[in-house]
Specification:
The chain has 11 helices and 2 strands. With 315 residues, the protein is mostly helical. It is a multi-pass membrane protein.
């Protein structure tokens, strides 16, 4: 076998090779990053401080906001640093660590979306038993299970990743350490790693996605039988927001992770990576807040309280 130098540092391709685009891209993604943190943090604060929002549905929504906020912290600061300095390098150890935490938040969100679907099923199809089924102990157990799967599944990928030798001089074709792209710069046999991606992808596709989507068949049937237009509208609003987030998450995530060895259009790959790694955490709070009247009312009450407090302190 030809001798090759083992990698200590990984070169990232970034978003653009055009120097004149680095600063505009930095400013755009800095704005996106600040909006992502602000939007998700605002949802968490509203849920924690407003007693009207301290229900299982908003508990899960607050958990989703925390996952999105931390997922953005894993990828976007590295992107901003690379755009500002034009350095585009990361150590191999930091690269694998980044990959683990990105997968942790992604897998956790995948299972959390299934839990949120079950919560909507119980609330709409079994409203009289909702408080008995979805009590706080159950909610905490469900979120604990979500985080447990989030820890274990990426750990399996990382353990098999550590067995590989990285001695390719190729540039990692992404702006962050995405698992399929990491495998492409290895000079070892990655067939087991690819098989794991496919197996977990099928697991999510058949089990988790089925658990997330199938309850909506029953929910839709129940909603259509409701006599009150206001109740139908409220049910459709919460369910459509959740389904929109589900399709965005699965659509972009599967686009990258179920074709790890396909050499497609690099520009299309980068756009998909930006969408699910940077834009999705921003879109989730927007989708939920714009269609959720209770969140809007909570925000209005909070702003009104702050204005009243400011007037009292000034007089």
């Amino acid at each position: 076998m030809e001798n090759q130098t083992v990698l200590d540092m990984v070169m990232l391709s970034g978003l653009s090779d055009v120097p004149s685009l680095q600063l505009p891209l930095f400013l755009v993604f800095l704005l996106v990053y600040l909006m992502t943190l602000t939007g998700n943090l605002l949802i968490v604060l509203l849920i924690c401080t407003d007693s009207h929002l301290q229900t299982p549905m908003y508990f899960f929504l607050g958990t989703l906001a925390c996952l999105d906020m931390n997922s953005s912290l894993v990828t976007t600061p590295q992107l901003l640093f690379d755009l500002y300095t034009e350095r585009k390098t990361i150590s191999l150890q930091a690269c694998i660590t980044q990959s683990y935490f990105f997968l942790f938040f992604a897998v956790s969100e995948c299972f959390l979306l299934a839990v949120m679907s079950y919560d909507r099923y119980v609330a709409i199809c079994r409203p009289l038993h909702y408080t008995q089924i979805m009590h706080w102990k159950t909610c905490l157990l469900l979120v604990s299970g979500v985080l447990t799967f989030g820890i274990i599944i990426p750990l399996v990928h990382v353990l098999f990743l550590l067995r590989l030798t990285f001695c390719s001089s190729s540039t990692l074709q992404s702006f962050f350490c995405d698992l399929p792209q990491i495998l492409k710069i290895s000079c070892s046999d990655t067939s087991i790693n690819v098989l794991l991606i496919i197996l977990f992808g099928i697991l999510f596709g058949l089990c988790v996605f089925g658990t997330t989507f199938c309850p909506y068949i029953i929910i839709l049937n129940t909603v259509m039988k409701m006599q009150s237009k206001a109740m139908r509208s409220k049910a459709f609003s919460t369910c459509s927001s959740h389904l929109t987030v589900v399709f965005i998450f699965y659509g972009t995530f599967y686009f990258n992770y179920l074709r790890p060895n396909i050499s497609g259009d690099l520009i299309l790959d980068r756009v998909a990576s930006v969408f699910y790694a940077v834009l999705a955490p921003l879109l989730n709070p927007l989708i939920y807040s714009l269609r959720n009247q209770e969140l809007k009312s909570s925000l209005k009450r909070s702003l009104h309280g702050l204005l009243c407090l400011k007037k009292n302190t000034s007089t």
